[in-house]
Amino acid sequence: MASKMQVLFLAFLSMTSSFIVCQANSGYGYGFGWGSGGGNNYNSLSPYFYDFSCPQANDIVVSVLENAISQDPRMAASLLRLHFHDCFVQGCDASILLDDSAAFVSEKRAKPNVNSLRGFTVIDIIKARLEEECPETVSCADILALVARGATVLSGGPGWEVPLGRRDSKAANMLLANATIPPPILTAQKLIASFKQQGLDEVDLVALSGAHTIGVARCTSFKARLYSQNGNSEADVSLEKAYLNELKSVCPSSGGDNNITPLDYASPRSFDNTYYKLILGGRGLLFTDQQLYSGNYATLAQLVKSYADDEGLFFDQFAKSMVKMGTISPLLGSNGEVRKNCRRAN
Ligand code: HEM
Ligand SMILES: *[C@@H]1O[C@H](CO)[C@@H](O)[C@H](O)[C@H]1NC(C)=O
């Protein structure tokens, strides 16, 4: 009986490996991630990457997320944002998670991130549980991708199949983080250019901006709009008046730079399409949010309207665009490493 099982298993193995070879040759390499340190040479990502080496990976991620979000509802937003800030800087390689080292300054201290990004200790908890159950197997970059989906789903948003098999970088790049993460003062044209540099188009830009349906921003991120948008002591004309006055009460003209307010005040904890509805009424919080509709760019404005009209359409496109963003320049095969601790290279 045992030997029959072994024969069957070997047959399965040989079928599987020829399948892998076939697929790899045709450029679709399904990485099955047969355990740790096995020198995987797969040349693309696959949702099945951990099916044999760590099938419980996503369950672990989700259970830690449920706990973290129940203690701090904003955490869903903070964690979703990490994947974006990771992927826009030398690809989705968990460079965002590295602390300062002798060799480099961390991206955490870059302008778009400092005093703003959060959630690193939640990632540490997930990584520690994964190291207990499947040592040296699940990369920190893949954790960020699974976390982004988990945070979206737990907030009421769409799910998607997460391509996996990214490896982790050995270094971070603060200069690049300063340069490539878009600041909230960009015009529509410049937002499009910023996303285009990452291989993302206008549809991706509008759909991914919908992540601002959850979470908050500090006054410093939008204060110029309230008091002196063009250095002329006038508020941004695209900002609806009653909303402008409310924001002024949260953010005084001097001080209060770290006060926070929701990006989508209508439903700040629920992943839905109200973000777009607010923008239609001049109630986008960031200049860049409002630019999608008020930036004299018809393609973007039309997309905002269609997502405001049809939440299902937004959800479908958000899912597709998250997969696309999640595949920006991954480290594959024997490039990079699987970090044991997400905060430092091995
Ligand atoms: C389109 C260009 C984007 C710009 C200019 C931008 C800018 C910002 C800024 C300035 C904040 C507030 C930070 C602070 O004041 O501390 C913020 C928050 C946030 N961003 Fe974006 N963002 C963009 C795209 C995205 C994308 C693509 C995602 C994810 C897919 C995302 C997810 C978030 C989330 C969830 C928050 C709230 C975080 C929290 O509450 O901790 N953003 N963003
Ligand atoms: C990036 O931005 C930070 C924060 O504003 C600044 O201190 C740092 O000098 C910048 N780093 C580089 C390498 O440009």
From TrEMBL:
Site location (Transition state stabilizer): R81
Signal peptide (UniProt feature, chain positions): 1-18
Protein EC: 1.11.1.7
GO cellular component: extracellular region; plant-type cell wall
Disulfide bonds: C54-C134, C87-C92, C140-C342, C219-C251
Record-listed Ca(2+) 2 binding positions: T213, D264, D272
Enzyme class: oxidoreductase
Lineage: superkingdom: Eukaryota
BP term (GO), one: response to oxidative stress
Localization in the cell: Secreted
Comment on bound cofactor: Binds 1 heme b (iron(II)-protoporphyrin IX) group per subunit. Binds 2 calcium ions per subunit.
SUPFAM superfamilies, A to Z: Heme-dependent peroxidases
PROSITE patterns per UniProt: PEROXIDASE_1, PEROXIDASE_2, PEROXIDASE_4
Primary residence: secreted
Keywords linked to the UniProt accession: Calcium, Disulfide bond, Glycoprotein, Heme, Hydrogen peroxide, Iron, Metal-binding, Oxidoreductase, Peroxidase, Secreted, Signal
Residues annotated for Ca(2+) 1 binding in this entry: D86, V89, G91, D93, S95, E107
Active site residues per record: H85
Cofactor: heme b; Ca(2+)
Pfam family of the protein (one): peroxidase
Role noted for this protein: Removal of H(2)O(2), oxidation of toxic reductants, biosynthesis and degradation of lignin, suberization, auxin catabolism, response to environmental stresses such as wounding, pathogen attack and oxidative stress.
Protein name, UniProt field: Peroxidase
The encoding gene: LOC110790560
